[in-house]
């Protein structure tokens, strides 16, 4: 995101000179998050007066799950010891051969009703043909025969395979539309977990098949089901390293960073050579520490940013180790570029992306990351140059090519990327003197691309939030409220959307009490590292209402949570100005400038406060 305009407020007791407060806006990640379903999103807190990172810094190329996923097409759902049914032949006669084979198996199963193996092969046939309900019937018959306990048909290995595939077909039959994101019902999930436990008791080698089932659920977006299956598998196979890694990824996508970290740390402890261990743990750290921008001046407090600095450094070391182990993995270099960017090393960030492009020049995810890097460079320089034009063309190209690619960029993400370009162009252009019709044209392009991202996935709260933010920054408050309300309707627990809705309500009607209630709702949902910005905004509301003691309490609380937070010092200074306590006001403005010398509002307020001191001094003497 680029630097939006600072919102100016008139100080409480003076109409002249005007003093500037700082309103904090929460900005939510949108451009590399899965579009379906909607787990808790990775988000960014940023201030209107600072230059926050772009939305892909947490994860430019979402890390691979592990070898299970990469080799999934190579794995047979039949297990290690089962017979396979080959369906190969001349393409033109394939359907005839399959039909003939099916007819033969059905005939044999009728002639040999007590042959469990025949029913199992018939089940495999139906499963290969995408008919899970018929496969379930065949597996149930085979299982019934094997469970009779007859000595001549006692085949525990076959029973294990039957139970495994039976459970998989229950999953396929009850979740035909994987893209829906609908979790399985309790009874269905219980049945799958029961089959898992039964098959593992008879043959622990089936762990890899159940791990693959967990990956299928994870890829389909059934996060809770994936967590249930993988957690149950770890109870009976605690040393299954792939399962530990995939469970960590499931928790990460579900927004539970603590449990995700526990899984990845356990995996690192058990096997540092596991192919996914470093890239996935680094992804976790980039999510955790890249999702929060401390805000203007917050880095002035060394203790406040120490955890973030350490986290980013650990992520960088993990990715360097991953790059050493597999120097031809482009996605590793892309994530390493993110780590360098978060550390402020823009030069090495660019070099890593150059490396990724050399390795996979046609990979859409890599091209997307490079385009985002160019947007960042344009925003940092505040120069609407060739960088943004190139990025815009690249994003448009990704949109055109993406749907046909096997490993592409999802359409909502691609549209959000194009919206980044248009928003950056609009915000940079707004800072320069250009014709009004040109500015409106750029703004319309940004609105169009943001709305297109929503049309691709109308239930994604992040995209509604981004559209609300754009309207808020262009001071179209009524429209922003519509979009932000749509965001909170889709995610009632998003403290960011609630906080921004409070800002919009406050700026559109300073006498309304709605903003106070909305801010309090945001505070009830906010995590510790987010709350200081909301306290600061609530303090601004109380200051405007001339409830100065309440305002001072809110700013003080903000500074307790985030020492060195420049906007809180600046806004506290405005309270003292309203109370005509000039020395205290100058102290606060000076403190804000010490921790953030680039905070223009504090600079302006300090000059005006000093001028008022000179005017009032003769009167007091």
Automatic annotation (TrEMBL):
It comes from the Eukaryota. Residues 1-10, 17-27 have a biased composition (Polar residues). SMART domains: TPR (SM00028). Residues 1-38 are annotated as: Disordered. TPR repeats lie at residues 116-149, 207-240, 330-363, 532-565, 566-599. InterPro entries: TPR-like_helical_dom_sf, TPR_rpt. Coiled coil: none annotated. PROSITE patterns: TPR (PS50005), TPR_REGION (PS50293). The keyword Membrane does not apply. Keywords: TPR repeat. PANTHER family: TETRATRICOPEPTIDE REPEAT (TPR)-CONTAINING PROTEIN, TETRATRICOPEPTIDE REPEAT (TPR)-CONTAINING PROTEIN-RELATED. This is UDP-N-acetylglucosamine--peptide N-acetylglucosaminyltransferase SPINDLY. It comes from Lactuca virosa.
């Amino acid at each position: 995101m680029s630097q939006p305009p600072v919102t100016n407020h008139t100080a409480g007791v003076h109409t002249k000179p005007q003093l500037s407060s700082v309103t904090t806006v929460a900005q939510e990640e949108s451009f590399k998050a899965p579009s379906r379903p909607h787990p808790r999103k990775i988000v960014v807190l940023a201030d209107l007066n600072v230059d926050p990172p772009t939305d892909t810094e947490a994860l430019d190329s979402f890390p691979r799950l592990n070898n299970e996923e990469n080799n999934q097409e190579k794995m047979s759902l039949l297990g290690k010891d089962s017979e396979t049914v080959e369906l190969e032949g001349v393409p033109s006669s394939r359907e005839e051969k399959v039909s003939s084979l099916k007819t033969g198996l059905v005939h044999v199963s009728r002639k040999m009703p007590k042959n469990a193996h025949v029913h199992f092969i018939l089940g495999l046939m139906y499963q290969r043909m995408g008919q899970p309900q018929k496969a379930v019937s065949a597996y149930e018959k085979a299982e019934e025969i094997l469970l009779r306990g007859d000595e001549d048909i006692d085949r525990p290995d076959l029973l294990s395979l039957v139970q495994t595939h039976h459970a998989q077909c229950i999953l396929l039959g009850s979740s035909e539309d994987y893209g829906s994101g609908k979790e399985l019902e309790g009874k269905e999930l219980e049945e799958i977990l029961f089959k898992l436990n039964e098959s593992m008791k008879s043959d622990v080698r089936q762990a890899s098949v159940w791990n693959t089932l967990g990956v299928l659920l994870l890829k389909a977006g059934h996060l809770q089901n994936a967590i249930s299956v993988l957690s149950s598998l770890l109870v009976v196979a605690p040393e299954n390293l792939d399962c530990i890694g995939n469970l960590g990824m499931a928790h990460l996508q579900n927004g539970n960073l603590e449990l995700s970290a526990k899984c990845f740390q356990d995996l690192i402890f058990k096997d540092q050579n596991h192919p996914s261990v470093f890239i996935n743990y680094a992804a976790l750290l980039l999510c955790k520490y890249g999702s929060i921008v401390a805000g203007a001046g917050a880095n002035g407090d060394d203790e406040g940013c120490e955890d973030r600095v350490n986290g980013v450094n650990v992520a960088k070391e993990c990715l360097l180790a991953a790059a050493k182990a597999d120097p031809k993995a482009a996605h590793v270099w892309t994530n390493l570029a993110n780590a360098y960017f978060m550390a402020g090393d823009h030069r090495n960030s660019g070099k890593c992306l150059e490396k990724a492009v050399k390795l996979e020049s046609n990979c859409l995810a890599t091209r997307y990351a490079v385009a985002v890097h160019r947007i960042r460079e344009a925003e940092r320089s505040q120069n609407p140059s060739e960088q943004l034009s190139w990025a815009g063309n690249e994003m448009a190209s990704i949109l055109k090519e993406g749907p046909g690619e096997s490993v592409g960029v999802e359409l909502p993400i691609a549209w959000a990327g194009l919206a980044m370009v248009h928003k950056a162009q609009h915000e940079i252009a707004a800072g320069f003197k250009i014709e009004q019709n040109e500015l409106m044209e750029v703004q319309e392009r940004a609105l169009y691309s943001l709305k297109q991202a929503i049309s691709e996935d109308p239930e994604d709260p992040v995209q509604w939030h981004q559209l609300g933010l754009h309207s808020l920054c262009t001071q179209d408050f009524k429209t922003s409220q519509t979009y932000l309300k749509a965001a909170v309707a889709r995610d009632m627990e998003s403290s960011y959307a609630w906080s921004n809705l409070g800002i919009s309500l406050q700026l559109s009607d300073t006498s309304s009490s709605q903003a106070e209630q909305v801010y309090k709702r945001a505070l009830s949902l906010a995590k510790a590292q987010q709350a200081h910005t909301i306290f600061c905004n609530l303090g601004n509301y109380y200051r405007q209402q001339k409830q100065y003691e309440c305002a001072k309490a809110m700013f003080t609380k903000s500074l307790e949570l985030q020492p060195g937070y420049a906007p809180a010092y600046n806004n506290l200074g405005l309270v003292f100005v309203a109370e005509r306590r000039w020395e205290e006001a100058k102290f606060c403005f000076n403190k804000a400038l010490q921790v953030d010398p680039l905070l223009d509002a504090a600079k302006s307020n300090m000059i005006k406060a000093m001028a008022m001191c000179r005017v009032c001094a003769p009167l007091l003497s």
